[in-house]
Write a structure and sequence with these properties.
The protein is α/β, with parallel strands linked by helices. It has 11 helices and 14 strands. It folds into 3 domains: about 110 residues, Rossmann fold (3-Layer(aba) Sandwich), CATH 3.40.50.720; about 55 residues, Helix Hairpins, CATH 1.10.287; about 150 residues, Histidine kinase-like ATPase, C-terminal domain (Heat Shock Protein 90, 2-Layer Sandwich). Bound molecules: adenosine-5'-triphosphate and magnesium ion.
């Protein structure tokens, strides 16, 4: 869902995906059964912002689904009647495998609640799993397509240390002074380390996002990592960098996916300044229990007519072969998964600011640096 607000000649788009629905009318779901099926459904449904899981029940307090629910701060209970009598619940997902449960639920549920049980629940689980596999494939394909554009940057960055190594090695063939030989050997080692660091960064970035997602990630560290990667994708020539980092800004999510988001946004910002140079500003903040990340450029800006389109798959204003138009679509998918929001504020020929907000994983601190 895209909300567009036009203010004079400034265009602001605030995109919150299903979050808007979540605020007004989330689907409240109760999961019955904390075995493997219950745990898998919990993991998958928890990622969907428009669904609120009101609780999960199992007679075994140590069931894997209940343990996972405690980690995700979803209410757990061993008492089915308590859970199904919750007035807000719209959907009861029965994955207990107990043949009598369905009849019990029909007899005791509130009239407004619907039941999905047995093979219907399993089908739902399979469909959601299939969708998240497709999503992961799409993310990875877009990342690999982007890496194609790194070739020139990588060649440049690897060529410098290689030239240095060549020069030093040529010197060594005629050098007689042992101390100088040692010094040049040390320089060669440093240059080789520099080259292998480039290869390591890129190999790490190009791999598939780890499926073990939900960990605490330092946003400042990821921004710096993203900057290193983005430098291969685009020329930072004539671009001034400003950083305002709030220490301790941390979010919960998949580190590989967050890196992917930040690389995409920084790359877009730098591409927008490619012709005339400009200033790239990276900011992080902790405000009212939320972590904010702001990426601003002073580039070409986005035409107001294009703003509602930029999160659509395959929308690009770049020349054929220069962009897939999947960057912001994937950014939006990941931000939704992290229960965050993204807002774009752009003014033609002045620049663009992209603001991300996430629930914070750290104690609350100061506001935006002024
Ligand atoms: N910072 C920005 N400044 C100006 N225009 C932008 C900016 N970010 C995005 N856009 C516009 O939004 C469009 C879509 O961006 P998106 O990242 O989805 O795709 P892309 O950059 O064109 O291609 P890629 O798939 O390689 O990222 C861009 O083509 C551009 O027109
Ligand atoms: Mg892009």
């Amino acid at each position: 869902m895209v909300k567009v607000v036009l203010l004079c000649n400034r265009a602001t788009v605030s995109l919150q995906g299903d979050r808007l629905m979540e605020r007004s009318d989330p689907t409240k779901v109760a999961i019955l059964g904390g075995g493997r099926g219950g745990r898998a459904l919990l993991d998958l449904l928890h990622q969907i912002p428009s669904i609120e899981i009101v609780g999960i029940a199992d007679s075994d307090p140590a069931a894997p689904g209940l343990q996972r629910a405690r980690e995700l701060k979803v209410p757990v209970t061993t008492n089915v009647p308590d859970l199904i009598s919750d007035h807000g619940v719209g959907l009861l997902l029965d994955v207990t495998g107990d043949p009598e449960m369905e009849a019990y639920l029909h007899a005791h549920k509130l009239p407004t609640a619907e039941i999905l049980s047995g093979s219907a629940s399993r089908l739902l689980w399979k469909l959601i799993q299939h969708e998240s596999k497709l999503e992961a494939e799409l993310l990875h394909s877009e990342k690999l397509a982007g890496i194609g554009s790194f070739a020139a940057g990588i060649a440049h960055d690897i060529n410098n240390p290689l030239q240095l190594i060549l020069g030093l090695a040529e010197n060594l063939t005629v050098e007689r002074d042992l101390a100088a030989v040692h010094e040049q050997a040390r320089d060669i080692i440093e240059a080789v380390k520099q080259t292998s660091a480039i290869c390591r960064d890129l190999t790490r970035y190009s791999r598939r996002a780890s499926p073990h997602g939900n960990v605490m990630v330092s946003v400042n560290g990821k921004l710096d990592e993203a900057l290193k990667i983005a430098r291969y994708a685009s020329s930072f020539h004539d671009i001034e960098m400003i950083k305002h980092y709030q220490s301790g800004a941390a979010v919960t999510g998949n580190p590989d996916e967050l890196l992917h988001v930040l690389v995409n946004l920084i790359t877009n910002a730098v591409h927008a300044m490619e012709r005339r140079g400009g200033t790239l500003t990276l900011e992080t903040t902790l405000l009212d229990g939320q972590v904010g990340v702001r990426i601003s450029d002073t580039g070409c800006g986005i035409a107001p007519d294009n703003i509602p389109e930029i999160f659509e798959p395959f929308f690009t204003t770049k020349a054929p072969g220069k962009g897939t138009g999947l960057g912001l679509y994937n950014v939006k998918t990941i931000i939704n998964k992290m229960h965050g929001t993204i807002a774009v504020d752009s003014q033609i020929d002045k620049g663009t600011t992209v603001t991300l907000t996430f629930p914070n994983a750290e104690p609350v601190g100061q506001g935006w640096p002024s």
